[in-house]
Design a protein that fits this description.
There is one protein chain. Helix 15 links the parallel strand 6 and strand 7. With 431 residues, this protein is α/β, with parallel strands linked by helices. Helix 1 (3-20) crosses helix 2 (24-34) and helix 2 runs antiparallel to helix 3 (40-55). The protein folds into three domains: 3-115, no CATH class; 155-214, Alpha-Beta Plaits, CATH 3.30.70.1170; 225-429, Vaccinia Virus protein VP39 (Rossmann fold, 3-Layer(aba) Sandwich). It has helices at 3-20, 24-34, 40-55, 57-64, 69-79, 85-91, 104-111, 120-123, 131-138, 142-149, 166-172, 205-208, 217-224, 243-252, 269-278, 323-326, 329-347, 369-378, 387-393, and strands at residues 155-159, 179-180, 187-190, 212-214, 233-236, 257-261, 283-286, 302-308, 350-360, 382-384, 410-412, 422-429.
């Protein structure tokens, strides 16, 4: 496919996403099935352009003066891919299978694009209905924080210390030019290419053999801050596909036990193969069956209960830019309700003297500090752990700088820590 044809394909996929309000991955899959002549490189290039367009959706529509897939693509080519007017005109040439030529108005707006005078939600590329929530969480930095969440994310890897070391992993992946992550002592970072695509890790022996796992540095830090150490009894209550389960298991060095469960047992399915690759021998996967609680026997017996709570996922918008345009106020209210319930459920598994660690990949105060404040107000048997103390105990004293100014816990986000957005709060149960 020609570059122009790829752009036209991206426009069609974006129109489908907008019309049917569906995940980008589904729309792209359907486009690929309907256009089997497109090779893997074509499909990857189209997907990259679609995701770039979604990252800058609000600012692109503002720049071009209209809300349309065409405006979103033009804006992304200009602001994110840094193409000049002549380069964009060459792609929008009107040739066969390509998009129509630029209009005079489009050319005028692309000559010297500017967001001067645009409101924060436009400059930050997040939904207007979240403007107040972003202002509450970031203050004067709301637009900058949103813009950071609208950027591309690097490929972060966690070194599996059960099978390798960071130095060995750096050497094994040297051809991909990895760097050590700045905060996590077990992290590697690989820059994405100019088109936004990362390396094909599925073909890398270090990945296939379980020596490294794909995991954002912020997610790695959430596990490290939990205080999990060798010999503890740990419950990962919302384990999902098991990224943090594997990190916790490595921290325990195959001593003690990690119990992994999830309300939706289907989410646990990928964990089995990942465990086999990892050499973690201290993980029990507890899959729900019927109405019975699969971890009922652990009530009051866990040294650490780790809660990666269901949330809006606003902290992961760099990786799922389509998600921010699908979320609605009702969804936020539902997630808050889920968080209230999961905190209450988690508390019953914490033994006296144990701790509960609450984590979200959200940057919204309503899902983070507000939830911990409400929980503490209702439970006299739990006390918040000081964020700086948690950071020092984890051997990561520099993370004390990310202590939340809005309540207990720590906040990470791409603007300040160059990670995905995460909130981590520790609660100790009275002995």
């Amino acid at each position: 496919m020609t570059p122009s044809a790829r752009i036209q394909a991206a426009l069609e996929a974006l129109a489908d996403i907008q019309t049917r309000r569906r995940p980008a991955a589904e729309a792209l899959k359907d486009w690929g099935l309907a256009h089997r002549f497109a090779g893997s490189g074509d499909r990857a290039g189209i997907a990259s352009l679609v995701y770039d367009a979604l990252r800058r959706k609000a600012s692109s529509n503002w720049l071009l003066g209209e809300e349309s897939p065409r405006a979103e693509v033009l804006g992304a080519l200009s602001s994110l891919r840094r193409l000049g007017l002549a380069e964009i005109e060459a792609l929008f040439s009107g040739e066969r299978f390509g998009p129509a030529p630029l209009s005079e108005g489009e050319c005028a707006r692309l000559v010297a694009p500017t967001l001067e005078g645009a409101p924060d939600h436009v400059r930050g590329d997040y939904p207007e209905w979240l403007a107040a929530a972003f202002a509450e969480s970031f203050g004067a930095e709301a637009a900058a924080a949103g813009a950071a969440l609208a950027s591309r994310a690097p490929v972060d890897l966690r070194v599996n210390t059960l099978k390798s070391s960071r130095d060995k992993a750096l050497a094994a992946l040297a051809h991909l030019a990895p760097e050590a992550t700045p905060w996590s002592p077990v992290g590697l970072r690989i820059a994405v290419r100019a088109d936004g695509r990362g390396p094909p890790l599925s073909a890398e022996p270090a990945y296939v053999k379980g020596r490294v796992e794909v995991q954002d540095e912020g997610s790695q830090l959430a596990a490290l801050l939990s205080g999990a150490t060798s010999g503890l009894q740990v419950l990962d209550l919302c384990a999902g596909a098991g990224g943090k389960t594997l990190a916790l298991a490595a921290m325990l060095a195959n001593k003690g036990q990690v119990y992994a469960t999830d309300e939706d047992g289907r989410r646990l399915a990928p964990l089995y193969a990942r465990l086999e690759r990892s050499d973690a021998r201290n993980v029990q996967v507890r899959t729900p069956r019927g109405a019975a609680d699969p971890v009922a026997d652990l009530a009051g017996h866990c040294d650490l209960v780790f809660v990666d709570a269901p949330c809006t996922g606003s902290g992961a918008w760099r990786r799922s830019p389509d998600a921010k345009w699908r979320i609605r106020p009702g969804a936020l209210q539902e997630r808050v309700k889920d968080q209230v319930e999961i905190l209450e459920r988690a508390a019953k598994f914490v033994k006296p003297g144990g701790r509960l660690v609450y984590v979200t990949c959200s940057v919204l105060k309503a899902e983070n500090e507000d939830r911990i404040a409400a929980f503490l107000a209702s439970r006299e048997d739990f006390l918040p752990l000081d964020a700086a103390t948690m950071a020092r105990a984890a051997g990561l004293p520099a993370l004390a700088d990310f202590a939340s100014k809005l309540g207990p816990g720590l906040r990470l986000d791409p603007l300040h820590s160059n990670t995905d957005g995460f909130y981590v709060a520790g609660l100790a149960r009275a002995g």
